Amino acid sequence: MEEMLGNVAGARQIFERWLKWTPEFQAWRAYIKMELRYNEVDRARKLYKRYVGCCNTADAWIEFAKFEMRVKQRENARNVYEEAVQELIGDLVPPEPEGVEEEKNVKQFYDEASKLLLAFASFEILCGEMDRARAIYSFALNTLPPSHAPNIEAARVALEKQYGTSTGVEAAVLTQRRRKYEEQVTADPLDYDAWFDLVRLDEQGGDVGRIRSTYQEAVQHPPPMHQNGSAGTAHEKMRWKRFVYLWIEYALFEEIIANDLQRASLVYGGILSMIPHKRFTFAKVWINAAEALIRTRDLQGTRKLLGQAVGLNPRKTKILDFYVDFELQLGNITRCRKILESALTRSQTSAAIWIRFAKLESELEEDERTRALLDLAIQQEELDTPELVWKHYIDFEIQQGERERARALYEQLLARTSHVKVWVSYAAFEAAPLPTEQEHDDLASQGLRVARAREIFKRGHKYLRDNEPQSKQECVVLLDAWKSFETEVAQGVSDATGLKEVDALMPRRVKRRRPVEDSNTMEDYYEYIFPDEAAALPNLKLLEAAQRWKRQKQAAESALTDALLPEGTHDVPEEKKTDES
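The structure assignment produced for this chain is given below.
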């Protein structure tokens, strides 16, 4: 009212009395607008200074800076922002939180600082000072908590996309992604996938020091072990595997990118000292560490490392094979034999070690030593996979063209086990020519092999039916293999006598029903009835006649129904299931 009456001085007195009550910004804004209506810019500026003095908030300082921009005082606006940073943020030391209220105050402090710095950077962008804006964003990212980083990163990326170069845009995006990965590994240091992503991101930047620092920080977080020392669940074992591969990537970085073989060897030593080898180990780490030592031409160190690996893990055949191949390439045959002998003394039940030793002697064309080793292997009372030793021994004799020796091995194996696979393999061996016999293979030889294979099939069938009558499924497998063999023979010589003989031995597949345990329901199952069992089943012929009568009756009823129904209508009667026993 006083202003409408032209009493500006009276209006000022009223505003001054109002401001003594420290009102909201609306009162200050009304006072400032009145001064600006009379072009009293200096008075308005003094009011803004008084306002930020009594209300030290980011919004108050930002309003002050915007006022200076509206009156086209750019330098004054910059001075306002700089003064605001000093007054509001200072050395960026928030109050120590001692309770819930203090924590809210700390959060509010950082919120105010983030808002002010973002506004300051936007002001510099408006003024065309892109370097100043980048410096403000960098300061904010380096000083503010990570929770405020996403907004600052987004603003920085927007700046680079609009005003920066492609290199600047890439750098801003990389920084934004790095911040994200750092938050993930901070929240869960055992998230090795996030560590891998962070390392890959640093490798794109090419800063060797930063990459090494990231690797060193990542490998300081091994997976936890159970109190009993076991590796725990499959998930924990997978974590250990990821952790080990992180170490391997670290070593490869030192060797390939940093070109420091000595440091790479130290990295391998670090992970080898951390793995609990008594529970589990990783052959890849041992082999990579040995290869790194080989590239440094440290042969003694390589032997020492591989000897330690074989000693701690005698059943890890990958490490043993690498050690033997390493010495073999150097021509140290005696050392290779000593390595394998030492491994056998630690683990005599490992079929893989026996086979590797035999392969070594075979490669050296020491046939008698090979046979002696394999004879010792098959005489062992306990082997983890004895079938592999027998197979290797038989294959060795076949490659040597020793049919009689291979036949003797099959007979020796049948004396220990009567598994159907042994019979089938024996028959296939008798039917096929050896590598040394292929050049002189004639009809007489083929006929002799066919007769011997057929005899093996007959022996196998007789043995299974006489000694293991309950092993019907195995007998069927043998007969199927025999039938396939006779089919091939019949195609070659046009003689189906053997095929008819097998068909006469084939069982009939009968569908039956039986009660389910702990239930009142019935289930269907199939049973094989061999020809030699038919005479022992008195009701079998009666059952066959009943089934034949049932099929004839159903066929007659179906024909009668089709004749009575109109043309184009066909109702198929539902077949009733009967219990067969």
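Interim note for the steering committee: The chain has 27 helices and two strands. The first strand starts at residue 508 and ends at 515.
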